[in-house]
Amino acid sequence: MIKIEVNMTIGIDKIGFATSQYVLKLQDLAETRGIDPEKLSKGLLLKELSIAPLTEDIVTLAASAGNSILTEEDKQEIDMVIVATESGVDQSKAAAVFVHGLLGIQPFARSFEIKEACYGATAALHYAKLHVENSPKSKVLVLASDIARYGVETPGEPTQGAGCVAMLISQNPRIMVFNNDNVAQTRDIMDFWRPNYSTTPFVNGVYSTQQYLDSLKTTWVEYQKRYECSLDDFEAVCFHLPYPKLALKGLKKILDKSFPQEKKDVLQKHFDESIIYSQKVGNIYTGSLFLGLLSLLENADSLKAGDKIALYSYGSGAVSEFFSVELVEGFEKQLQKNRLALLDRRQALSVADYERMFFEEAKLDESGSATMSGYEGQDFALIEIVDHQRRYSKVEK
Ligand code: CAA
Hints:
This protein is of the alpha+beta class.
């Protein structure tokens, strides 16, 4: 009989990130579209966007992010792989099954996909926690992988992006523990959605921002009621980041005006550190909250073990959730400090090249096959489609 440990702590043991090899500078986009660059740099707080070519999708991004954190031992211990996404490549086969194969994870594992817009990864983390509670030796790989595409010359265009955050969930985690304090809210609304026949979403832009902020306020009020706390209990708040300016409005909305200036300054400093990566990557939908968390951890110099971080997750449609984590002793040893330098190695695209990449489609022949090229710079790539089957491979360097 399996013995369930009492007082078990469960949380994030490892965290990593992968994005595409191409970047679009928003200064260039603004000039081409004839808009004031400050509208993007100050109005949205964005600087650059990662752009994914045809050979890079949520599977390759997830495999790259997972590969960046896993050891061979982890691959033998993982018994669940969850890909959270709203940019799936197949209506039936889960991206997690492709990733399971690409990473060489031991066969006796559950692999599946989970979806609720940008909220999916938060649901995946909760499910992973419940699984480890029931099966304490298990490790779960959660991959928050998305490609945000709004369309050329749309209001959402400057808020696109591509990337995956990989998180390994286990007992006795080395980075942070979950505090078991989740409060979720569901509203049946149409603020942002993508029907099966459309490659880009339909968006009620202003309405979506109002819903994001109102869901934040009401979920936060309920959280405070249930857990009798205030923002004073947290060193930082990380937000879903469709674009950082909206999250800044969120912080201001829940910040108690009566707080001492010193506390407000700490929360603002940590907020600024949490948006550094998103400002250079753009929106990665369900991964963007966790990219914010990663950015905070890797760019803040004043966080310490025992600090609590609040997280606000929002997925259009809409489901939101407020919950918190606590840093553990030695968390900083699990982080990577050269990520900004890696982002700066991406190849800059002209706006014309970005548009070409945006509209590129696999040219399938009569048998449903196509050969891809130009993926040499990727870690994993979609290399061909054969009889309608997507074929992925690790790229040998
Ligand atoms: N200098 C500085 N700031 C300027 C400026 C200038 N020259 N010109 C405009 N601005 C400011 C505006 O004042 C505005 O700031 P405030 O919001 O503080 O007023 C900001 O730039 C944006 O300008 P607009 O209000 O004119 O809006 P826009 O046409 O750029 O569209 C948007 C904004 C509707 C959010 C659009 O980007 C969009 O549709 N995005 C996609 C939807 C989205 O991200 N929604 C978020 C909630 S939904 C969600 O969270 C899920 C998800 O990930 C999609």
